[in-house]
User: What shape does this take?
Amino acid sequence: MFSEYSTGMVHKMNDTATKQNYLFSNAELRNLILPLILEQTLVITVGMVDTMMVSSVGEAAVSGVSLVDMLVNLVFSVFAALATGGSVVTSQYLGAGKTKDACNSSRQLIVTSAVFALGVMAVCMAACRPILSFFFGSIEADVMQNAQLYLLISALSFPFMGIYGAASALFRAMGNSMIVLKSSCIMNIINVVGNAIGIFVLHMGVLGVAIPSLLSRIVAAAILYLLLRRPVYEVHLNRGKFHFDGKVIRKILYIGIPSGIESGIFQLGRVAVVSIISGFGTVQIAANGVANSLDSMGCIMGQAMSLAMITVIGQCVGAASLAQVKYYTKKLMLITYAGMIVINVAILLSLPVILKLYGLGPETTALAGELVWIHDGIAMFLWPISFVLPNMMRACNDVRYTMVISIFSMVVFRIGLSLVMGVNMGMGAVGVWWAMIVDWIFRSSCFVGRYLKGTWRKFCVLK
Assistant: This one.
């Protein structure tokens, strides 16, 4: 556990000792981070290709898929938060050299994730249309038909994505992100090839996208689960009789529940925002969907570094090294900023060419371009401290502060200000996206203040 240092001399001695025994060499960081970047690039690129393929079916189809994707992202964000809880606990055990405890926590995470995902699947399938009506109101009939069909098929994949997300988090906790990249490649190859066949050969419309996604997720989950059962890995699933370990599950949920509430409210807020945009008509829905896919490309580096932050800082906490927590936080944030600036500048410079690939109408294309400029032009400066830095605090067990700030900011700025600017001021989707920027500014100021004040240090204990 960390202790508060009373003199500058002790600080210096602790820092000097740490520098002689860093947990991660530059080569190890590269091996962790590069596959994460490639994985995020692959996922986002395939998402863009999916959107382009669906857009060939018509704007009603792309609108329906984009609306449901917001709900699916909401579900996946909760799965990811649970996986984050397991990843933090496992990383801390590994940093402390407690391999047996790390293996036990991994098994608890996999089973808990699968059970939770089955419950979510059952709810979504039983109340598919009411859920869509609740979130998006009276959308056009053809959009609703496509959305309902896509949600039903997507819900079948939830248990597999719960297992896949948990298994991916465990491999990343070991620093083995290459295996996750390889499984992601297989999953996305199946997805893209299946989409092409389903849409252009079999002319199945939305089903041509939904079914390949389901199959690809089943395959990916099976691959990672079977690999985790192999004892050659430092963290693996023991083959003995399973029983729920309340102590370990509570540790996972200590991180997972606040992170899940935070992520769930965040994605729910995004869904609420999209429901606001859905009232502006099909053109603005389609432009928002296309802009979201491009904006995700601009955040690839940030998403990858958020995952790396959990692994690196979690192991530093387990090793009881405050100096390394601070050192790697600064190092990973600098890498994040450098990557995000390069990627977002490249997207903005090539935006006219990229937008032509979607084959949408002039009005939709122009609006999508404006939304991307708002997002990417500012994301390169605010996104890292709004969303990557908080993961450092989560890895240090400081989860409640990030939850409270994120929920408050989402409700007040992302949703409340969207209603003011988008609806009351008549700015439409553009006003909604400017409200998002205000949300980032508030988050950034709070998280930077928390880090500089050092309040997070008192949570840095191996629980």
Summary: The first helix runs from residue 8 to 19. DSSP finds 17 helices and no strands in the chain. Confidence is low (pLDDT under 50) at residues 1-20. The two ends are 9 Å apart (CA to CA).
